[in-house]
Amino acid sequence: MNKLSTTERILESAMDLFSKKGYKSVTTKEIAQKAGLSEMTVFRHFQSKQNLFEKTFDRYIFSPKIKMVFNETFEWDLEKDLMKIGSAYQKTLIENQRTILMQFKSNESTSDFDFPLRKFPNELKKSLVTYFTKMNEMGVIEDNPEVLAINFLSGNFGIFTSFMVLKAYDTNIKIDTCVREFVNTFARGISS
User: Fold this and answer.
1) Does 103 lie in the same domain as 35?
2) What is the tally of structural domains in the chain?
3) Mean pLDDT of the chain
């Protein structure tokens, strides 16, 4: 960890502790000790525990890969495009399991501050609404774009939580297979 910058050391330490213990249970003193720094250094870099939590989340969850999917040219083939989006979303979720677990373990009331876990899906939802609106204008779908975006994200997140977080299924089926079948079924179900 000594080869990392001070900011990176703090973020890595915070990520590790938040994901294991949750937001409320972790102190800035613990984060500083784990990073091999003083608590004052943590505050100089992040000003507050809340800000550190949010920066940790931003750093680890907002993958450029998912944004890249929406910056690429779509084929405007519903199933192919949704497969790209679904795969990128799953990859981002899988790569950020620790961060997501950190959020789940925090058990904080959102009245204290707006938890970052809501930021990522809301940004993704906006991009999906734009995509579904265009597909609606092209006559490919007829349903409400926002409802479709929420359902698409919820289905994908459900697959992720079942496989990765809950480890709910005793199966040899891979998560990619489930995502592919979900996208296929979803695309057929909403096509005009």
Assistant:
1) no
2) 2
3) 86
